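Quick one, T. Sequence first:
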Amino acid sequence: MIEPASSEHNSLPVSDRRWAWLEIDLEAIRQNLRRFRRIVGPDVMIMAVVKADGYGHGAAEVARTALNSGAKMLGVSNIDEGIALRESGIVAPVLVLAEPPISTVEALVRYHLIPTVYSMEFALAYGEASSAADQIGPYHLKVDTGMNRVGIHYSDAGDFLRTLDFHKGLQLQGVFTHFATADEADTIEFTQQYDRFHEALDNIRYMGIKPGIVHAANTAAAIRYRNSHFHMVRIGIGMYGLHPSNLTKQVLTLQPAMSLHARINFVKPVPMGEGVSYGLRYRSPGNVLIGTLPLGYADGIARELSGRIQILYQGQRLQQVGTICMDMMMFEADQRPLLKRTPVKPQVGEEVVIVGKSGDEEISLDEIAALLGTINYDVACRFGMRLDRVYHD
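Structure tokens:
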């Protein structure tokens, strides 16, 4: 029988238990939200989007920080994420940003989660579950204005709500859409979606229905398009100090909240011509030290990054070498005197930075995302898969 981890082990700091961890700067999240508050003004509500475990930053900790910084509502992707927030003690309004399966309606009511609605079948089932619990179920209507992912077609929004208006177990709390190109330079598609959303709102009001909380702006739209703020903006990636595109970097300065750290767990000289890691694709040039770090692609360091990324050691960039393994990766510390820089001699137990700052150097999530041909959201979520987090205020 395998004994559970001792309390003595669990009481060790994360950086001592595994020698690979994420650090999350909660003050950076607060500062970023303050910057968005200055943009949207005092009368526009902020929804903090904490789906995907807070984009890898930890949903519950980020949610509490955001709520204490003025956010009025939380956004999640599915009911399980909402339930996890409730079980962590969070009582603030939580909107599930996509319509859940009909089978979840009783759980939605029990945990007081607000669903997104865009099908009649789900709406009626949710209304019946709410009535059976002697409650009135709040919901937000999702309007498809051109992204063509989910939502009721903008031309049908008014008729849809008029059909539901009879149900005493339902209460429309809000109407929203999602912009597909708010982070793009071309504004034509954005303007079309914006105009369609207004058309939907006009039709809803024509039916004598109050739309409630109107929201459309994601991070990019909140920064670039003041006319899209309506009653509430949904701040996701920007809250974490990351930009959705280079266009928003020109308007607002944000502070990244996530950094990735490790301690060196092995160092050895590798003779000239000897290979390192699977496939032996890297060959030692001689007079180098190879350091090993206890993290790999199971921690979000994609195997495709092998030999392409660098790490920071005492403010200096060192090259990652060899194939990145599931649980380990290696780097090279060159000792050749012909190089102009001073050779470094890394030691077991010393800390390195994979994402973040060290001295005057910085490796950003954007840098890694560019190497992978993806976006910073993707990389941040990958790092949240297995690594423990250390939070700083």
